[in-house]
């Protein structure tokens, strides 16, 4: 268990760091949009800024997954596929609820739902092979 | 796929962690193969056979699927 955890920490450390930086950039840009007076060009640049740490996060994550052994890669692939399908279904559900006038989902809801679903499916998949 | 990995490992007095280290995989992978929840890839099967100095078909039996 210790060895597996050590491996996880090593391969996912860069992705974790870029994820934290990405979140910090998102919060910082949100703060600027709310409290600072910015030119239209600067607003566009600021809105696109999280793409840089986001891209590096994605690159580090893929590199990290490739550093895992074959069973762990399989778990991640199965998790990603199922999460993608469940998120599409959830997006349709949000759309239906919105059309029915019951709930108006925000853009962030899709991301949060995806992360929650990913964690649930990952834990389930990991348990299957224990 | 049925396999004799657990018996072979026990004969040599190795723990799952020992075998995992030799194969450069996680202990979870060794356990999943032993419990027949996961069939290894061909390169990993060759590596297992090499470590035990046996043929793949002497360790894994494709005719006995779970």
Written description of the protein model:
The complex is a heterodimer of chains A (130) and B (66). With 130 residues, chain A is mostly helical. Chain A has helices at residues 2-35, 40-48, 51-66, 70-99, 107-128. Chain A folds into 2 domains: 1-68; 69-130. In chain A, helix 4 runs antiparallel to helix 5. The longest helix of chain A has 34 residues, at 2-35. Chain A is flat, with a radius of gyration of 18 Å. Chain B has 66 residues and is mostly helical. The longest helix of chain B has 11 residues, at 42-52. The model of chain B has no long low-confidence stretch (mean pLDDT 91). Chain B has 5 helices and 2 strands. Chain B has helices at residues 5-11, 16-23, 27-34, 42-52, 56-59; strands at residues 2-3, 60-61. Chain B has one domain: lambda repressor-like DNA-binding domains (434 Repressor (Amino-terminal Domain)), CATH 1.10.260. Chains A and B meet through helix 1 and helix 4 of A and helix 2 and helix 3 of B.
The helical percent of chain A reads over 70%
Structural class of chain A: mainly alpha
SSE run of chain B: EHHHHHE
Secondary-structure element order of chain A, N to C = HHHHH
Low-confidence stretches of chain B at least 5 residues in length (pLDDT < 50)? none
| Number of strand segments of chain A | 0
The fourth-level CATH homologous superfamily of chain B is lambda repressor-like DNA-binding domains
Which topology of chain B does CATH recognise?
Answer: 434 Repressor (Amino-terminal Domain)
Mean pLDDT of chain B: 91
Beginning-to-end CA distance, first to last residue of chain B: 6 Å
Supply the helix-strand structural class of chain B. mainly alpha
Rg over C-alpha atoms of chain A, rounded to the nearest angstrom? 18 Å
